[in-house]
Amino acid sequence: MAAIEPKKHEMPVQKPEVRAHNFDEVALGYSAEIAAAEAQRCLNCKNKPCTQGCPVNIDIPEFIAHIKQNDIEGAYDVITKSSSLSAVCGRVCPQENQCEKECTLRVKLGIDPVGIGRLERFVADTHRMNKTIKPSKPEPNGHKVAVIGSGPSGLTCAGDLAKKGYSVTIFEALHTAGGVLVYGIPEFRLPKIIVADEVNTLKDLGVEIMTDVIIGRTLTVDELFAQGYEAVFIGSGAGLPMFMNIPGESLCGVYSANEFLTRSNLMKAYLDDSRTPIMKGGNVAVVGGGNVAMDAARTALRLGGEKVYIIYRRSMLEMPARNEEVEHAKEEGIDFRVLCNPVEILGYKNENDPRDPKNGKVRAIKCIRTELGEPDERGRRSPRDIPGSEFELDVDTVIMAIGTSPNPLIKSTTDGLEVNKRGGITVNECGLTSRENVYAGGDAVTGAATVISAMGAGKTAAKAIHEALSGK
Fold it and tell me: Where are the domains of the chain?
């Protein structure tokens, strides 16, 4: 056997000084030549540890084997047996913590794992460019299922059921299908044309999508059953933003990351002729250390931010964002202020002129330096304030990216639907809730998590719905 290259092949990217000023996709994707070379690094392990690390159980060695044979459509067919969103997953999944973490090259040889996510993206993009035949609709089986929410869990559940002949209707509260994939993830990381193509593939399978329908207002879960739906899957996500409850959070110029990204991504505030209001320019502080914080900071930079800070109360080692996103943010000039915690947002107040237009707007954020204590039972070190270490950063905008929780609307309008203390819908291992024939998955259950984990929950629920309605 030929010697294995120790490093995975680099992903071609836009140069930092170029991409920091546009919303075009940063990562440009493997060429056919690079993909073929990277595929050769796969050992085709018989026990397939990478597949076991994938939340939707894609047969990874099998699809890579097709790439080695230059059979890209064959590779695509293998992936789509398990995943309805391959072009999305290839871009935004945290492969380094899932399939690639289990790769034998990494675990046993101590070298870079195979670039599984990059190869998945290559396969999906190649299929998309060459696609000429729409998928055929399966023979109807006579059963109707309603899916609430068109995010990754809802799209996955709908796709798996549609392939089995179910009549599936997705009810989406916003005007565009895609959920967090369209309102939460910026264009430079996930182009919306990619999401639209994945949605259109489901439509080709017969899935109907009803937008501008708010379950709990327009219709209730009980009314869906009254309309003849035999099962309901709730994949409504976690759209309720969290705040720190510190002084000054009501000042003009303070956003939740959810609002800020929705205005930019879904409402196209980044376009030059957009009429969607959003803060542009000035100095920006983003509070948080996850992928959403990286997305918000990099979006603010592209909207004209002169100085953009990430404020995170732990160190770089504890930062939960993907390494790739952190590195891209650093390269673009984002200023990381770690081991710092906001204690107050300061505003303008002109005592001499109450009509001063700056009154009530953000002028600075006050932080305190922190240090990490001993690890807790989960191994996580909690930050603690260092007395007397307060300092101020002059900023015009503050974006809170410290998490979201499920919206309570569906719970409050659905009798007998149990939730946990964090507002997440309670489910069993199959995704079944406390209500008969009502299933749930994704962020509506777990709170904000990854796209692929939501897809796994949608897949699990689809299997359970099929077994329940088919009498298995």
Answer: 16-130, 144-239+405-469, 243-402
Tell me the CATH number for domain 16-130.
1.10.1060.10
Residue 175 identity:
H
CATH topology of domain 243-402: FAD/NAD(P)-binding domain (3.50.50)
Q: Tell me which CATH code domain 144-239+405-469 carries.
A: 3.50.50.60
pLDDT digits (tens, 9 = 90+) for 132-165: 677 788 999 999 999 999 999 999 999 999 999 9
Nearest by Cα to 235 from 153, 180, 155, 156: 153
Residue-by-residue DSSP string for 127-194:
HHHH--SPPPPPPP-S-EEEEE--SHHHHHHHHHHHTTT-EEEEE-SSSSTTTHHHHTS-TTTS-HHH
pLDDT for 96 beyond 60: yes
CA distances in angstroms from 427 to 235, 405, 411, 422, listed in the order given: 12, 16, 13, 14
Tens digits of residue pLDDT in 33-65:
999 999 999 999 999 999 999 999 999 999 999
| Average pLDDT of the residues of the chain | 94
Which burial class, exposed, middle or buried, applies to 320 when counting CB atoms under 10 A from its CB (0-12, 13-18, 19+)? middle
CA distance 48 to 316: 32
